[in-house]
Design goal:
Shape: globular
Structural class: alpha/beta
Strand order of the largest sheet: 3-4-5-6-7-8-9
Radius of gyration: 18 Å
Helix content: 25-40%
Order of helices and strands: EEHEHEHEHEHEHEHHEHH
Number of helices: 10
């Protein structure tokens, strides 16, 4: 599993992590999700992303069961505060609730899920206080475009934004025009969510599928693994696919070892071209 530094920190974080949006209900399904998360950790996907919104905290509780008893310093746990809770006091209280559900003393990174009616400056001030209290090690945002990032960073007095979590997949590469270059200049990690989009990967009968299949055959990989490898080809990027089965977990972890060369990247880039101009930030 490849790792790289996160934000301006020296921490080495796996490029492929584990998302937890829409984890299942039901005792058997929950146990399956816990086993899948544990396997992912064993395979090096120790970056685990969650949020208080996911199942109204249920996702955090499932993760708590998966990480129980594991060395805390092996894990990189991220959660998020909902915009409606992101006042100064509300942010601190939301973090406390997430820590309680996760059964942790601290989060490695805490994010504002998206901006809402509360001033971003109040949320950032609260997050800096959480760092002081030792409840979070780093802070960031999600679904922020360049102007939003600038506003958030200007509100910070002691800390720097560590990451921005955004929608990023082969069919949605708008962040590559302005947002990704900005984040790289500012040492803000970009964590891409929903890395397969909302559709099936194309079959070999299409130009897109043929390109992915050719690169996959070259590396002895699946097209899904190649799609993930493409998304983390840049120094600033990470991806957090969700997997609730052990088969998918193994496949996702395998993508973290694939390094695409210039020829591979050019082939995929031609099949899934990035927009030539700036687009409004897409998110889901």
């Amino acid at each position: 599993m490849q790792t790289r530094s996160f934000g301006d920190k020296s921490w080495q974080v796996p490029v492929v992590g584990q998302g937890s949006w829409k984890l299942p209900d039901g005792a058997a399904a929950v146990e399956g999700a816990r086993k899948a998360l544990k396997l992912g950790i064993e395979l090096g996907m120790t970056h685990i992303d969650t949020a208080e919104m996911y199942g109204e905290g249920h996702s955090e509780e499932i993760i708590a069961g998966a990480i129980a008893g594991l060395p805390r310093d092996r894990l990189f746990i991220v959660s998020k505060v909902l915009p409606e809770n992101a006042s100064y006091r509300g942010t601190i209280q939301a973090c406390d609730r997430s820590l309680s559900r996760l059964k942790l003393e601290y989060l490695d990174c805490y994010l504002l899920h998206w901006r809402g009616s509360h001033p971003v400056a109040d949320t950032m001030r609260a997050m800096e206080e959480l760092v002081v209290q030792g409840k979070i090690r780093a802070l960031g945002v999600s679904n922020f475009d360049v102007e939003d990032l600038e506003e958030a960073q200007q509100a910070l007095t002691k800390e720097k934004l560590a990451c921005n979590q955004v929608l990023y997949h082969l069919w949605e590469r708008g962040i590559e025009h302005s947002l990704l270059p900005y984040c790289k200049r500012k040492s803000i990690s970009v964590v891409g969510y929903t890395p397969f989009g909302q559709r099936k990967l194309p079959g070999q009968e299409s130009n897109e599928g043929a390109a992915l299949s050719a690169v996959a055959a070259k590396h002895g990989a699946t097209v899904a693994q190649i799609a993930l490898a493409f998304l983390v080809r840049l120094d600033a990027t990470f991806t957090i696919p969700k997997a609730s089965s052990e088969e998918h977990v193994r496949a996702n972890a395998g993508a973290g070892a694939i390094k695409l060369d210039d020829e591979d990247i050019a082939k995929i880039d031609a099949a899934f071209p990035a927009p030539r101009g700036r687009k409004p930030l897409a998110w889901a």
